[in-house]
Amino acid sequence: MDWPAVWVTLKLAALTTLVLTVVGLPLAWWLATTRMRARALVEAVVALPLVLPPTVLGFYLLLAASPRFAPGSAYQQLTGATLAFSFEGILLASVICNLPFAVRPFAAALGSVDPRLIEASWCLGVSRLQTFWRVVLPLAWPGVLTGLVLTFAHTVGEFGVVLMVGGNIPGVTRTLALTIYDDVQALDYARANRTALVLLVFAAVSLALTYTVTQRRPGRR
Amino acid sequence: MSDVVAEFELSFASGPTIEGRVRQPSDRASVTVLFGPSGGGKSTVLRTLAGLERPQRGTIRFGDETWFDAATRTFVRPQQRGVGMLFQSYFLFPHLNVEQNVAFGLSKLPRDERARRAAAMLERFDLEGLAARRVDEISGGQQQRVALARVLVMQPRLLLLDEPLTSLDQPLREKLRGELRELLRSLGVPVVLVTHDRTEAIALADRVVVLVDGRVRQFGDVQQVFAQPADEVVARYVGVEAIEEGRVVETRDGLAAVEVGSAHIWGLAQGELGSRVFVCIRAEDVVLERGATGGSSARNHLPAQVVSVVPEGALVRVLLDCGFRLTALVTRTSSEELRLAPGEAITAVIKAPAVHLVPRG
Lengths: 221, 361
Hints:
The structure holds 2 protein chains of 2 kinds. By secondary structure, chain A is mainly α.
């Protein structure tokens, strides 16, 4: 195993999941409850990474991250480092790429909570934010968990975008999925197989765990 | 005690406009019932009072507080209104047990104060043994008590009840109707209650607001609204019936005699000896006879005097004075044969099963 790659992969997946929890939950809550027309547009943008080839996404993210364009240069002026070919760069790319895997299950779960339970909480003097923590999240938990696991698992296996934006730098931006590609290129099939097997088992186990946990709480109102 | 005065108008993009006019007086802890057919806008009015709907026009005041004013864009959030709202299907929190549900709104209090108040409320509603139970493991009647406890533990200034008995089975509903009236009386808090059930309205209301098609058609004392509908639309939904307050003076063979003014009326037994009841008699159930024959199966033969005779299509509405006001609806032919005219003496005949007794505690 390529241990630096394992470390980069786990760090990337954990941080991506964390960022998407903080950003994704409010966004999903807004999508689940708003009556604004802009909702459809935002939903489409969130779902875009599902249908776009990762290379297309990666290409534009790479352009945006380079110091020659506004977002990249702003980042450079702020931190003194470039976003492209850095860990922060692939983190940003991975967050955007995983938006639908987190936000869509979140929104479905949050939206399935009966609005009258929320209103009952408001009428008992409990604030909107407290109601979210004490009523919505506990009831939507299985769906939220699904979103978190999908995000983590999908980030572990992300290839195209990470390659385009990160550039496969060992110990910095080279993830496990990239080492498989490198190993196959180097005709080291045995090594590629070991990594691939680990990723396969990991994906299967995390999905199985999620489905078990969410099934144990059948459609409670 | 504070007056609730609400006059507002709500429009929905794809639906009706609902005009709410509710006045809850402060003279005593009284119960205002919003009555009308399903889809008439009753629940929407209740939700607006709670702050869950935002009207386009009008004002809602509670005492000297303004909860809503379209002109000044005032809107007080439901959290700040201090109302207790009981939803139709209760909407207990399914992830919390009975005790956690009751204590839910008390989260700002210190832990021991919270526990003390929740425990007192559980005891008051006979729920101590169920404190740790999940809310989907208890019966409908128990769920209703948990929902009431959860609301009342907050000591609301105004209590809003949306069809509080509708989700219960019929026998339980009748039993709880009496208990609910006692409870509402004992609270000392103004109550606005929504129902489509006329017996429930008659049993629980001090005042009735009749809402049909999103419009308030009539507003007044329960007796007045049911006995004297303001117009045909109200009459269609409310029905016309004499409602008189009386006292049960005798019970025998499943029947109860009720003293109303100077008359005694027999109906199917409801309420204990000495208790107060409403005697409800529909106009179409009153038969008129010349002279006192006594030779019929009907239990009630009341000597009466005709007050007025008003033709209504094929029927004639005859207002009678038999110690209390009674309306009879007879055919035009009968009216002519009996030569009904104001001042005439007549006998009103009513079968006991047509005399509807509603206990008023």
